[in-house]
Amino acid sequence: MREVPLRLWQLIAAAVIFFLVGTHLIIMHLGDILSFFGADMGEPTAWSSVMERASSAWWTVFYGIVLAAVLYHGFLGLRNVISELSLSPAAMRVINRALIVVGIGIFAFALYIPIST
Amino acid sequence: MKAQSSERRYLENYLGIKGWVWGGRYRLERYLYTLHRISGLALLFYFLLHIAMNGFRLSSGESWTSLMDIFDTPIVKFGEYLVLAGFTFHALNGLRLILQELGYTLGRPKPPVYPYVDALERRRPIVFVMGGVIIILLVVFIFNFI
Amino acid sequence: MSNNGENQGSVSKLTLKVQRYNPDRDKAPYMQEFTLPFRKGMTVLDGLLYIRENIDSSLAFRASCRMGICGACAMLINNLPRLACHTPVEEIGEFTLEIKPLPNFAIVKDLVPDTSSMFEKHASVKPYLMRDDQEEMEHPTAEFVQSPDELESYLQFAYCIKCGACVAACPTSATGKLYLGPQALTQAYRYCGDSRDNKSGERISAVDPYYGVWGCHFAGACSQVCPKGVDPALAIQLLRRKVFAQSLGGKERTPSPVAAPPTGSKEKIPVPEFTVTQDDRS
Ligand code: HEM
Ligand code: SF4
Ligand code: FES
Questions:
Q1: Which of C113, C131, C166 finishes a domain?
Q2: CA–CA dist C227, C87 (Å, integer)
């Protein structure tokens, strides 16, 4: 299989993460700085605001995209790092498949959280 | 006495994983590579942890709230800062890598005239600006944690 | 060689700590210290030659041209891969040097690395001109046209002497035995970027697997140590750009044409009789 498409999507995912996770981090972790600029988000980790986001279709789509992008970018990155260790092709095949299965599993589980609550 | 030498196994001399981290007297970018790799793997680890934590929401609102209360300590705050710092570095350095690994901002090949200056060194200002932005952001972030 | 010009300046002694390993005798490499007279302008290779001639004739290292052309004498000098013949001791500024064989290759003996893996990878990227007009390639009628600009777009990368310093510096080569490495990838681009070539697709398939261009993370160590100013890191990024471009539907270039047969040029200077002619060679 050709390697280019994998790497091209990794870069595209990185660009997506840059904006979406950037937004997420500013809202969740930089509340004080945001309110300094006059944008008060309330307490982002309070149960009520968590539930408010979880029930919004927009936020669910947002988190779905973030999840997919970060899992793809991160797991492919991990696989790239491992692929430089000169493991046997058989071991590499096992690792590749395991990462795909685990990645999809985590995606499903993590998306289930905002959908079900 | 025949062709013994061709069967001799030479001594392997790979630097190994140590060679990813330790480089000897190399310049800045080689260590940015190391840091990018470490920050990427650390972010991945944090991300998985993050998902597991959010799994607490499945049981009940109380367990989520009590988890958030447990996390209201200086050590976790510091960890949160580290995650932000790691992300900031990985994101900005990653943006530089995306551009440069696609061949942008590097300029054209130059005939090697002594003393040799390579593309990375000619474009060192890019790294300095990036480093400057990262440091400024990290300092600004501190205000959120005090 | 050691007797003239000795004892210039204040320093008169040079200490070389050399890594020794004899596969027939030693279980593991060890360091051995040699003290020798320092001479102004002396290179590290001069020091090693002095040891071999005057102190220990069993010291194994490779060198041939002693002028940075053959690429045989690359070794790890004070933790940086360099050509021994191209490194004056004064340039390092220390008079105790630690000399080891190039890492990321196997050791044959003492300071001699086994660089055959590099040459195999070099060959695997098809480092030669490939064109559609096979007939012209085999029975050329004239040269291919190339402008100075087109020449400069790859010329820098053509100066590689296959010394292996870049491979020794590369962090990916430190673990990735299959990784093609800066040397081979640079040569892949040297031909992909040549306006006379139009089969870069074949080279791109050779460098597309995970152990090809993708092993490069732009640490830039190769370009820092290359003794010929080749800048492998730049070549690899340009190569990666070509790989991406091709996967997005980029087309192969039309190769530069064969030059028109010269008209009205000066008469050829007749070949002198004492020169070996084509016929003599076969
Ligand atoms: C702002 C968003 C991000 C950008 C712009 C970005 C960019 C990049 C780029 C360009 C690479 C390839 C580096 C190379 O060729 O050596 C990379 C590798 C990697 N990234 Fe990211 N990244 C981002 C976010 C993340 C996140 C959130 C994670 C964690 C899940 C992550 C995990 C990784 C890993 C594990 C690697 C492989 C490291 C390596 O090969 O050395 N990245 N990133
Ligand atoms: S690119 Fe430079 S360092 Fe690498 S083998 Fe060629 S001459 Fe040596
Ligand atoms: S002896 Fe030829 S390059 Fe040093």
A1: C113
A2: 10
**Measured between CA atoms, how close is A21 to chain C, in angstroms?**
23
List the CATH code of the domain at B26-106+118-145: 1.20.1300.10
pTM of the model: 0.90
Q: What is the pLDDT of residue C272?
A: 66
For residue C83, the ligand closest to its alpha carbon is 3
Ligand 2 atom 3 nearest Cα: C226
Closest partner residue to C209 (CB to CB) among A3, A5, A86 is: A3
Which residues of chain C have a CB within 8 Å of the CB of B19?
A: 103-104, 171, 174-175
Q: Is the pLDDT of residue A31 over 90?
A: no
Verify whether the Cβ–Cβ distance A85 to C243 is below 8 Å.
Answer: no
CATH code linked to domain A4-116: 1.20.1300
Domain assignment of residue C282, yes or no:
no
The pLDDT value given to residue B146: 74
Higher-confidence position of C186 and A59: C186
pLDDT band at B5 (very low <50, low <70, confident <90, very high): very low
Asked if B87 and C197 touch (Cβ cutoff 8 Å), the reply is no
| Residue with the two structure tokens 């080279």 | C203
Which atom belonging to ligand 2 lies closest to the Cα atom of C161? 7
Residues B81 and B57: their CA atoms lie apart, in Å, by 23
Task: Provide the CB-side half-sphere exposure for C278 (13 A, CA).
Answer: 1
